[in-house]
Specification:
The chain is of the alpha+beta class and about 800 residues long. Helix content is about 65%, strand content about 5%. It has 5 domains: about 190 residues, Multidrug efflux transporter AcrB transmembrane fold (Up-down Bundle), CATH 1.20.1640; about 110 residues, Alpha-Beta Plaits (2-Layer Sandwich); about 60 residues, no CATH class; about 240 residues, Multidrug efflux transporter AcrB transmembrane domain (Multidrug efflux transporter AcrB transmembrane fold), CATH 1.20.1640; about 90 residues, Alpha-Beta Plaits, CATH 3.30.70. Helix 8 packs parallel to helix 10 and helix 21 crosses helix 22.
Length: about 800
C-alpha cells in the first residue's frame, strides 16, 4: 500500500480505536517524560558552534581562571541602610551575620563569602569597589554551586530569614536574572495559551456552528504540543535547548495545530454535504485537504530549516521546537483526526446551532471565559484547571442555548440531514462578491495593496538590531529589576557582567605589564566604563584577566560601541609591538556583539536557502514557475511590512500608549531583538506559504476541472476564505496573547507574527491573490516544456465516487439497485 495522506486517513478510519489508543499512550508517556526531564534541558544560554573572539576569550577564562572553582556563578547581595554607614559597628555586625548564614549553607555556596571588611584588611583599593559612594551600601559576593532557579529561591529565603530592622537586602547576578526571566516567561506562556485556546474556541464555534467540531482541532493542537515537549525532553538528554523552545512549541503548536485540523474538519463536513458517506468523506478529505495540509506543513518545515545554517544554538533551538510541533501537528491531523471523525461521525455537528443560537452562544462564551478565568486565576487555581473550567463553561452555555432554541423556535433540524443536504459552494456570498469585485478592477487593487504594504515596509529600513532584554524592560515588580537598579545607582551597573579583556602569552615581561597598566588608564577614561578595573592573573601565570565594569546597562548601543572601540582602536594601539602576547576582548556584551555580526553575515545565506527551497517545492507542487515567483514576492511583502510595524511600535514608540491602554505592556527600546528578524522571516514565510498552498490547491483543483482561470479563482476564494479567515483570526489571537506578556522578546515576536498573519490573510489573500491571478490569466499555470519532466505530486488530490446516504426506505432500495461505492472502501 502506498503511504500518502489518503491511505493514512482511510487506514486510521478502519481502526479508529487502535489509533486513538496509541495516541493516548503516546500523550501520557510524553507528558510524564516532559514533566520529569524538560526543566533540566532548558537554559538561557546562546552558544556559538564556531569560534568568534568572545568565545575564544571565554575558553581561556574557563581553562585558566575557573577550572578549579566549583562555583557556577557569583551573585551579589546588596546590603543597604538608610540610617547607618558601612563604618558603623551595627552595619559590620549585620554583614557578618549574613556571612555566617551563607557559610553554613554548604549545599548552596561554593565557598564562604568574603565581605568588604575582609578585603579592606588586605587591599584598600580592591575594597573600594564593594562599597557605595554614599557609604550606606555594600556588596557581599556569593559564589553559588548551581545557577538554577531553586538555588536563587533558596538564597532569597535565606535573606528573608535574616531580615533586620533598618537594613534592606537584595540579590543581583546572572543566575538571579535568569530565574526571574524563566518565571515570567512561564507565567506569560500559560496566560497566552489560556487566552489563545479560549478565543480559538469562540472562533471555531462561530465558523462551524457546533461545539464538537470546534473542540476537535484544539484537541489535535494539545496532543501535538504535549508530544513535542516530550520529544524535546528526550533529545535534550543529548543536546540542551534554549528556554524559548517551550514558548515556541506552545505558540506555533496552537496556531498550526488548530489550523491544520480545522482545514480537514471543514473539508470533511463539505464532503458530507455533497452526499458522501462518512468513510468516503474521510477518504476524500484525506485525498484533498490532508494533502494540502501536508504540503503546507512541509513549506513551514523547509522555511525553518534555514535557521539551522546559523552557527548558534538559539536559532537551532527555536527552529527545532517549531519543526517538532509542526510535524506532530501533521501527524495528528493525518492519523488521530480521521480516527476521531470515524468515532464521532455526524456528532461533530453537535450541538447544531442556528445563526441566532451561534450569536447568543458567542456572547455567553465570552462572558463564561471572562468570569471563569478571572475567578479561577484570582483563586490561585493552576492554569490547566482554569482551562478545563473555561471549556466546561463554554460547552454548558452552548448546550443551554441549543436547548432553548430547539424548544422555543425549532430552528435546528436533524444534524445528519443538515450535513448531507447543505450547500458546499457558497455562490453569491460575501467572499464571492468581493473576489469578483477585485477581479473586475485588478490593477487598482494590485497597486493599492502593494502601496499599503510597501509604505509600512519602508520603516523596516530603519530597524536597529540589538537587545530588548535589558533589566530596564522588566516589570517593576520583579525582584531582580529593583536589585539591578540599586546596583546601577550605588555601584557600577555592569559589576555583575563586565567586559573581559584576556591577555595571554608572555604576560610577565615589563613591556606587557606596562601595556596592561596603560590599557587600564585608557579604559578608566572611557565614558562607558567605571574608573576602576580589576586585574587578576591566572594560577599558572600564563594569562591576565582585566575586568572592565560598565557604568550603565550592558546591552545597549553605548556598550556595544565601547566593545567595538576596544577591539578596533584601544587594544591595537596599546598592545601592538608588545612581543609574545595575544589580547582577546570577551564577556557577555562582546558575545552579543559577535552574535549581531553573525546574523548580519548569515542572513543572506538563509534568505537564499529558504527562497530557493520554497520556489522548488511550489514549482513541483503546482507545476508552474509563475505561481512560486508570485508567492515569494507576496510573502516577502507581508514579512517586510511586519518588520516595519515592529520598528514603528517598539523602536519608534508609535502607538505604544494606545496598545498599553487596552492591556498590553509594550516598552520602547533602542533596538529590536537581534535574533528576531531572521526568525520572523523563517516562521512567517512558512506560515504565509501555509495559507497560500491551501488556497491555491483549491484554485488548481477547480482549474483542472473547468480550465476557466477566473471562475477557478472565484471558486477557490469563496470556498476557502471563511475557513482561512477563521484560521487567521485564531493565529492572530494566539500570537497577540503572547505579545501581551511582560518580556520584550516575546512582545516583539508575538506582535510581529500577529501583524504579518493579519496582513497576509486580508490584503494578500483577499486582494493581491485574486488581482494578480486575474491579470495573469492562464499564464499563472505556465511551465516551460523543458521542465515537464518534474514529478506530478497532485497536491489537490481527488474525490471518490459520490454515494448519497439513504434517509428513507425508498432511497435505500434505490441505492441497493443502482448505488455504487468506492472500490477502496
Amino acid at each position: 500500500m502506498r503511504i500518502n495522506p489518503e491511505t493514512l486517513a482511510r487506514a486510521s478510519s478502519r481502526h479508529p480505536w487502535r489509533v486513538v489508543g496509541v495516541w493516548v499512550a503516546l500523550i501520557v508517556a510524553a507528558g510524564a517524560i516532559s514533566g520529569a526531564l524538560l526543566g533540566g534541558v532548558l537554559n538561557n544560554d546562546i552558544e556559538f558552534t564556531n569560534q568568534p573572539e568572545s568565545v575564544r576569550a571565554q575558553d581561556v577564562i574557563d581553562q585558566r581562571f575557573t577550572q578549579d572553582s566549583p562555583a557556577a556563578s557569583t551573585e551579589y547581595v546588596i546590603i543597604e541602610s538608610d540610617q547607618q554607614s558601612v563604618d558603623d559597628p551595627a552595619f559590620q555586625e549585620y554583614v557578618g551575620e549574613l556571612q555566617g548564614a551563607f557559610a553554613a549553607r554548604e549545599d548552596l555556596v561554593a565557598a564562604p563569602p568574603v565581605s568588604y571588611y575582609d578585603v579592606l584588611a588586605q587591599d584598600e583599593n580592591a575594597a573600594a569597589g564593594l562599597v557605595s559612594a554614599s557609604r550606606t551600601a555594600t556588596l557581599l559576593p556569593v559564589a553559588i554551586k548551581d545557577d538554577d532557579v531553586e538555588t536563587v529561591e533558596a538564597i532569597r529565603d535565606l535573606l528573608a530569614e535574616h531580615r533586620s530592622e533598618g537594613f534592606t537586602t537584595q540579590i543581583a547576578g546572572q543566575a538571579t536574572l535568569f530565574a526571574d526571566f524563566s518565571k515570567i516567561a512561564e507565567e506569560d506562556s500559560r496566560k497566552g495559551e489560556l487566552i489563545g485556546v479560549g478565543v480559538a474556541l469562540i472562533v471555531l464555534v462561530v465558523v462551524f456552528g457546533a461545539i464538537v467540531a470546534a473542540l476537535v482541532p484544539i484537541a489535535m493542537a494539545v496532543a501535538a504540543i504535549v508530544l513535542s515537549l516530550g520529544l524535546v525532553a528526550l533529545i535534550g538528554q543529548m543536546v540542551e535547548f534554549n528556554l524559548f523552545v517551550a514558548q515556541m512549541i506552545s505558540m506555533i503548536g496552537l496556531a498550526v495545530g488548530i489550523d491544520y485540523s480545522q482545514f480537514i474538519v471543514s473539508r470533511y463536513r463539505e464532503e458530507r454535504k455533497k452526499g458522501y458517506d462518512k468513510h468516503d468523506a474521510i477518504g476524500a478529505s484525506g485525498a484533498t485537504a490532508s494533502r494540502a495540509v501536508f504540503f503546507s506543513g512541509m513549506t513551514v518545515v523547509l522555511a525553518l530549516l534555514g535557521m539551522f545554517i546559523l552557527p548558534t544554538t538559539i536559532f537551532r533551538s527555536l527552529a527545532a521546537g517549531a519543526i517538532f510541533v509542526t510535524l506532530m501537528s501533521l501527524l495528528a491531523a493525518m492519523t488521530l483526526l480521521p480516527a476521531l471523525l470515524t468515532l464521532l461521525g455526524d456528532r461533530t455537528s453537535w450541538p447544531r446551532l442556528s445563526r441566532v443560537g451561534t450569536m447568543i452562544t458567542f456572547v455567553l462564551m465570552v462572558a463564561a471565559i471572562a468570569v471563569v478565568a478571572m475567578g479561577l486565576v484570582v483563586a490561585g487555581v493552576p492554569w490547566y484547571v482554569t482551562l478545563l473550567g473555561v471549556i466546561a463553561a463554554i460547552v454548558g452555555a452552548s448546550f443551554l442555548v441549543t436547548r432553548i432554541v430547539r424548544r422555543e423556535r425549532g430552528i435546528v433540524g436533524r444534524a445528519r440531514r443538515d450535513i448531507v443536504t447543505g450547500d458546499p459552494d457558497p455562490r453569491g456570498g460575501f467572499w464571492d462578491r468581493l473576489t469578483r469585485r477585485v477581479m473586475a478592477r485588478p490593477v487598482v487593487f494590485l497597486v493599492a495593496s502593494v502601496a499599503v504594504l510597501g509604505s509600512l515596509g519602508i520603516f523596516a529600513l530603519q530597524l536597529n538590531k540589538g537587545s530588548s532584554t535589558g533589566i530596564e524592560t522588566f516589570p517593576d515588580d520583579v525582584p531582580s529589576k529593583a536589585a539591578f537598579l540599586t546596583l546601577q545607582r550605588e555601584f557600577a551597573g555592569g559589576l555583575t557582567d563586565p567586559a573581559e579583556i584576556i591577555v595571554t602569552g608572555a604576560v610577565d615581561t615589563p613591556e606587557a605589564q606596562e601595556a596592561i597598566a596603560e590599557f587600564q588608564e585608557t579604559v578608566a577614561q572611557m565614558p562607558a566604563f567605571s574608573p576602576q578595573t580589576q586585574v587578576v592573573p591566572s594560577a599558572d601565570g600564563s594569562a591576565i584577566r582585566v575586568s572592565a565594569f560598565f557604568q550603565g546597562t550592558t546591552q545597549s548601543d553605548t556598550a556595544f560601541d565601547s566593545i567595538r572601540e576596544l577591539r578596533e582602536d584601544v587594544v591595537p594601539e596599546t598592545f601592538d609591538g608588545v612581543p609574545g602576547i595575544e589580547v582577546l576582548v570577551g564577556g557577555n556584551t562582546a558575545f552579543f556583539l559577535d552574535f549581531l555580526d553573525l546574523t548580519d553575515t548569515y542572513q543572506w545565506i538563509v534568505l537564499a536557502f529558504v527562497l530557493g527551497l520554497s520556489f522548488i517545492l511550489l514549482m513541483v507542487v503546482f507545476r508552474s514557475i509563475v505561481v512560486p515567483i508570485k508567492a515569494i514576492i507576496m510573502n516577502l511583502l507581508s514579512v517586510v511590512a511586519a518588520y516595519g510595524a515592529i520598528t514603528l511600535v517598539f523602536q519608534k514608540g508609535v502607538g505604544i500608549g494606545v496598545f498599553n491602554a487596552i492591556g498590553f505592556n509594550f516598552q520602547r527600546t533602542e533596538a529590536i531583538e537581534a535574533w528576531l528578524p531572521l526568525f520572523l522571516f523563517s516562521v512567517l514565510f512558512g506560515l504565509s506559504m501555509d495559507y497560500h498552498v491551501f488556497l491555491l490547491s483549491r484554485i488548481r483543483e477547480e482549474y483542472d476541472k473547468t480550465h476557466d482561470n477566473t471562475e477557478a479563482v472565484a471558486y477557490g476564494l469563496r470556498t476557502t476564505a471563511g475557513i482561512i479567515t477563521g484560521a487567521a483570526i485564531i493565529m492572530v489571537t494566539v500570537f497577540t496573547a503572547f505579545a501581551s506578556g511582560r518580556l520584550g522578546p516575546f512582545q516583539q515576536m508575538g506582535f510581529g507574527l500577529a501583524v504579518a498573519v493579519l496582513l497576509d490573510a486580508t490584503i494578500v489573500r483577499t486582494l493581491l491573490v485574486p488581482a494578480s491571478m486575474r491579470l495573469l490569466g492562464d499564464l499563472n499555470w505556465y511551465l516551460p516544456k523543458w521542465l515537464e519532466w518534474l514529478p506530478k505530486l497532485n497536491v489537490e488530490g481527488h474525490e471518490p465516487e459520490r454515494v448519497v446516504v439513504p434517509d428513507t426506505p425508498a432511497e435505500l432500495v434505490e441505492a441497493g439497485e443502482g448505488g455504487t461505492r468506492s472500490s477502496e472502501f
